[in-house]
Design goal:
The protein has 59 residues and is mostly helical. It contains two helices and two strands. The protein has a two-stranded antiparallel ribbon. Strand 1 (53-54) and strand 2 form a beta hairpin.
């Protein structure tokens, strides 16, 4: 099961192709993903890191 974007979740829920329970589950997955990304940014700020990464891979 993949994680949908907020727009996709809203569209699917409005169309009735996703139940309220499914939408809530998908929203929680989005929140969890964003929380992880924020954690990475916070660590970079605290450590003064200026390396650029995409998906945790140094570029």
């Amino acid at each position: 099961m993949g994680v949908y974007t907020l727009k996709e979740i809203t569209q699917k829920w409005k169309k009735g192709t996703m139940t309220s329970e499914q939408a809530i589950g998908q929203l929680l997955q989005v929140v969890i993903e964003l929380n992880g990304r924020i954690g990475v940014i916070e660590k970079r700020l605290v450590n003064g890191s200026s390396s650029k990464t995409v998906g945790g891979i140094d570029k």
